[in-house]
């Protein structure tokens, strides 16, 4: 069976086979981004009923591989797409991307000990002159910038990682836990939509004013001690954050 053909004898539902074929083509840049994936086109191609076509497109839309324009049809989403499940631990996005075969790359810059801005000092309940480890990390997937994070961490003075160590580990929080046994046990998040500034537009390769997703996080260690702060800016159209709530 060719990679773009269905195999009715495989036991795999037809909609799932169609979805996987289209997913590979969208992810591989094979389909034309300006050409809609119409039901008529897919019906002719796969020679099946409408039900598996609609199911495949619905799931591809849910996972961020296609999007619908009212009155115009369904179009492929170009570039990297990342869906973050609810059970991925805060600070472990890089690890999750690596483990799921997305081959992320990270770039750490501005690594230094600083006195944080007053707002962050108040959020973490710091002493007036307490200095924190500060750096910026840019995470890219498939050579496209996905997340830029501004990070402040409360850590022992002798925790002095290099940018290369942070790049290799993928998480300063995980490195701190491994070296000093200081674990972050919970986190609180605020999330909102924002328009890209001129600098952010340059970083992400988008137009100024394009939508971005901002997630601000306060990390806590055992004993509910505030231990770190992060503001992570995401490309909104390429990142889906899945979460659950208890009623």
From TrEMBL:
A single Pfam family it belongs to is GntR
Quote the protein name from its UniProt record: GntR family transcriptional regulator
Q: CDD domains in the record, alphabetically?
A: WHTH_GntR
InterPro entries per the record? Bact_HTH_transcr_reg (IPR050679), Chorismate_lyase_/UTRA_dom_sf (IPR028978), Tscrpt_reg_HTH_GntR (IPR000524), UTRA (IPR011663), WH-like_DNA-bd_sf (IPR036388), WH_DNA-bd_sf (IPR036390)
Keyword line:
DNA-binding, Transcription, Transcription regulation
Organism (species): Arthrobacter ginsengisoli
Residues of the HTH gntR-type domain? 12-79
Which SMART domains does this entry report, sorted A to Z?
HTH_GNTR, UTRA
């Amino acid at each position: 069976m060719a990679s773009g053909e269905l195999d009715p004898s495989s036991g795999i539902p037809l909609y799932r086979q169609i979805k996987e074929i289209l997913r590979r083509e969208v992810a591989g840049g094979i389909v034309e981004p300006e050409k809609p994936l119409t039901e008529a086109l897919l019906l002719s191609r796969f020679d099946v009923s409408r039900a598996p076509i609609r199911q495949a497109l619905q799931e591809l839309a849910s996972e961020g591989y296609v999007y619908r324009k009212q009155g115009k049809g369904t179009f492929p989403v170009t570039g990297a797409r990342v869906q973050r499940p609810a059970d991925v631990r805060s600070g472990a996005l890089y690890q999750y991307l690596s483990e799921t075969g997305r081959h992320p790359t990270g770039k750490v810059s501005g690594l230094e000990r600083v006195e944080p801005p007053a707002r962050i000092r108040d959020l973490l309940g710091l002493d007036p002159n307490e200095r924190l480890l500060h750096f910026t990390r840019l995470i890219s997937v498939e050579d496209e910038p996905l997340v830029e994070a501004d990070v402040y961490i409360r850590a022992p003075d002798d925790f002095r990682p290099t940018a290369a160590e942070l790049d290799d580990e993928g998480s300063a929080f995980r490195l701190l836990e491994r070296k000093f046994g200081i674990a972050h046990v919970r986190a609180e998040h605020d999330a909102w939509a924002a328009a890209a500034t001129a600098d952010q537009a340059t970083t992400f390769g988008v137009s100024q004013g394009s939508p971005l997703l901002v997630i601000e996080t306060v990390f806590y260690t055992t004993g509910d001690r505030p231990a770190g702060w992060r503001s992570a800016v995401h490309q909104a159209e390429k990142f889906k954050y899945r979460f659950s709530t208890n009623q």
